[in-house]
């Protein structure tokens, strides 16, 4: 188990977020938060020049606190991983297209990315969906104009294609998916009347099935992560997506086969890790007083994976109260402590580290020829791309050469 704090839109309010994490840790010092996940609008502006690349009306621009963490006047008290949203220091994040450290203990997943932390496999997709730029390359460059300042954070088809190919070789299930946008149609799995009570202007988009990202919808059904966290719409909302049983679907499609074949299939199914039956979705609000912007969860590991190398580092759909081991920090006095197993209470000897995901590196290598800085980029292949064991082994050998220890 790893104790995780999930945050909606940060909007640069890092001091307030970390103060809230410290408050939670003071409430339960034996089980501190080990990882903070942010679902976009992180706003990591280093200076006034970065501030000029923030896509919002000038009167709302503010440098906030990140520059102090960048200059190491302050240090993030907990390992922080985030994806980009539609209000970002786009110039800085464009320099880290494949992800990287923006400041000590703060890691950006990139336009898309997959990492492993404390046995938890985490994937993320930055930005928001806009159809007019979906098939374009990453053509934006500084200095941005009013158009490119916004198109730079629009989701691209290539990153979605890359993410859709994880879990081919490394069967470790995807524990967490981070996005800024909601997956399209996710509201159908939660409490729609409650959502419309809070956000009545969503009604037209819900009726026309245009609320959320089609790219996110595709990835949710393709990858079936155990948890999906998002932000963007500034409202807390929970849902449970029950995925079809893949084994039953396959059995129906091959109903005429022998019982011996069925037994073999059952044996094969027991050897490989099963896909999660459900995806538990949670969207959170922005960081403001009396807003539901953070959730504390104890997440199980995705499963042991040998294919990682160190890099220096039940939702209730009506109430969004998750399970017995999850606490809503907005009302800490109402949170009840639960019995902790030995594995939960056992303290880690060292803070969790970010690990490379070798399958993701193999996917990036296999699709590098599709990357484009032109507006009219080559389309991604329509046929499925195969990632094999030899691709993983190549990366493992290469990384070992770089760091034999």
Automatic annotation (TrEMBL):
<dbReference type="Pfam" id="PF05011">
    <property type="entry name" value="DBR1"/>
</dbReference>
<dbReference type="InterPro" id="IPR004843">
    <property type="entry name" value="Calcineurin-like_PHP"/>
</dbReference>
<feature type="region of interest" description="Disordered">
    <location>
        <begin position="298"/>
        <end position="351"/>
    </location>
</feature>
<dbReference type="InterPro" id="IPR041816">
    <property type="entry name" value="Dbr1_N"/>
</dbReference>
<keyword id="KW-0464">Manganese</keyword>
<keyword id="KW-0862">Zinc</keyword>
<keyword id="KW-0507">mRNA processing</keyword>
<keyword id="KW-0479">Metal-binding</keyword>
<keyword id="KW-0539">Nucleus</keyword>
<feature type="domain" description="Lariat debranching enzyme C-terminal">
    <location>
        <begin position="272"/>
        <end position="405"/>
    </location>
</feature>
<dbReference type="GO" id="GO:0000398">
    <property type="term" value="P:mRNA splicing, via spliceosome"/>
</dbReference>
<feature type="compositionally biased region" description="Basic and acidic residues">
    <location>
        <begin position="260"/>
        <end position="269"/>
    </location>
</feature>
<comment type="similarity">
    <text>Belongs to the lariat debranching enzyme family.</text>
</comment>
<dbReference type="GO" id="GO:0005634">
    <property type="term" value="C:nucleus"/>
</dbReference>
<protein>
    <submittedName>
        <fullName>Lariat debranching enzyme B</fullName>
    </submittedName>
</protein>
<dbReference type="GO" id="GO:0046872">
    <property type="term" value="F:metal ion binding"/>
</dbReference>
<keyword id="KW-0408">Iron</keyword>
<dbReference type="Pfam" id="PF00149">
    <property type="entry name" value="Metallophos"/>
</dbReference>
<keyword id="KW-0378">Hydrolase</keyword>
<dbReference type="InterPro" id="IPR007708">
    <property type="entry name" value="DBR1_C"/>
</dbReference>
<dbReference type="GO" id="GO:0008419">
    <property type="term" value="F:RNA lariat debranching enzyme activity"/>
</dbReference>
<dbReference type="InterPro" id="IPR029052">
    <property type="entry name" value="Metallo-depent_PP-like"/>
</dbReference>
<feature type="region of interest" description="Disordered">
    <location>
        <begin position="249"/>
        <end position="281"/>
    </location>
</feature>
